[in-house]
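User: Assemble these into one structure.

Assistant: Restating your components, then the assembled model:
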Amino acid sequence: MGAAKIQVIDGRALPLRGDDMDTDRIMPARFLKSITFEGLEQHVFEDDRLAASRSGQVHPFDDPRFQGASILLANRNFGAGSSREHAPQGLHRWGIRAVVAESFAEIFFGNSLMMGLACVTASAKDVEALMSLVDRNPAAALSVDLKAGTCQAPGMTVAISIPDHVRDTLMTGGWDTTGLLIDNYEQVERTAAKLPYLAGF
Amino acid sequence: MGRTLLQKVWDLHKVRTLPTGQTQLFIGLHLIHEVTTPQAFDALRQRGWTVARPDRTFATVDHIVPTRQRQRPFIDVMAEDMIASLERNTRDFGVPLYDIGDERQGIVHVIGPELGLTQPGMTIACGDSHTSTHGAFGAVAFGIGTSQVRDVLASQCMAIEPLKARRIRVTGRLPRGVYAKDVILTIIQRLGISGGNGYAYEYAGDTIEQMSMDERMTICNMSIEGGARVGYVNPDETTFAYMEGRPFAPQGEAFERAKTWWRSIASDRDAVYDDDVEIRAAELTPVVTWGVNPGQSIGVTGSVPGAGGADAQVADALAYMGLSAGQPIEGMKIDVAFIGSCTNGRLSDLREAARIVRGHHVAKGVKALVVPGSVSVQRAAEREGLDATFREAGFDWRDAGCSMCLGMNPDKLEGNQVCAASSNRNFKGRQGSPTGRTLLMSPAMVAAAAITGVVTDVRELVDDVPAGVR
């Protein structure tokens, strides 16, 4: 089954500062108790947002200036911890279509790809430059161009990195993998037939 | 040139290189649970797919199950709905389920090994990041998300990029009162919580070789807390002795043939690694986390960082934990003590904790609970009288599940309670209260904190803490 081809992600951005944002923070476990992913967008960073409002601050996800953003700017090791797909699902349903970060945790990165959420990396300096720009000008239009390997913003273009296979997968719409894995099932059976533990040793 | 276990298992299970450049990898064992599968089964139904290998798929319930008052329907309507969904899905698709009331129920990473489902040389997947636990047997085991659960259900395969191999050699004798948990917390602290990104961790060296399977599982379990999706130990006689006679393990002559094959998939002596690290066991001490990720830890006699420095991340963690920069961690007051989880909810963990609490009582004002990792662990502990030891000391003795590791069932922290926990994550809000605070440590250290009411060096509490659990 083919999925949408994703080549360029345009939109406003939301800067979220801090390293090691774990998936328990992105989506607290109590919101994993539903048998669907529906409504998860309401609970993205819920506890952090609550903590911010209690201390008289505004969390970026509550900041009116960043509502409707489609590009999330983040720092190091974004999405650490639990394999819960509810975390990228929540971000995606909130409207995020690309995350530009210094680095990602591996399972989060893979989960995001499975729903066509583009995770790309940029240098710490460039991420900070983008965040500062968006702080000053929340209405700035950014453009993440997977083919060109750039993130463009008014007055600046920074280089982004994305593994070749991830870029190709997104750009060709091949990120919906199940069909790909099923369509050669005879080959799967041949591989399984070689495994001693499936043949009673 | 020799190959690592990772390479051998990978090559054996590789179906093909996908057009995307990823590997299509056959999964020998798929373990599933109630929380990360409902949407995957929905996708199968929508597309008219079946479960490719129901004979290689096994289900249990662990994340949201109550640890007392387990009569159905559960009081929590959402939990009931979730369990009912797994019951329906496993029935419709012909997958065995070890449900509430089954003697084989328990945390998925505890029952896989117990039942002999987990075996050396397998590829294993489960919709839970602590699937790395099964690597203790020399399996290559991946934590996956729900879309990948869908893929594995439908095709018994996953699409994945090759991993690099880092060997972590732990050498020498563990000092008194230092456990497998302290070893892995030290590894995570030294290499960083994202240090393992893109790597499989191979745990080697004589310290690891001398460890029991329970201890090896504790180590492999927390690989993901160091950023490594996969962690493993080469199979050896300790592994085979554990396997023998388990319900799904090969029996008789097949077991002998299996051992020959299992030996053959261990890393070759001349295997080449992408990185090599050595940890000296003699330098290790009991470890406690002070912050909001598993890499933020110190020796129990140490002081929390931040004195004189203005690292924003450290300052944020200290503020959340209610700690002052430079403060000693020993003596920090706790409200709750939790012994359990896929990291440290096995029989040897409970035995060691029981040894510490025997003859003592839980400190006033501390709520303490023991949650066995499986019904099987629970029954074995009860046969030894460990339940009585814990109850007499003032602990709650509960039924098996994930419980307060992640607070998806009624076992949650309240407000900003501080919990000494034998589990694996101290993230903000992890234990079910948005402001709850977690101190990760070994089960023996949790037991010590429970009876004193404060973070305590277990080595001072009892004289006979052994040099490692053997």
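DSSP finds eight helices and eight strands in chain A.
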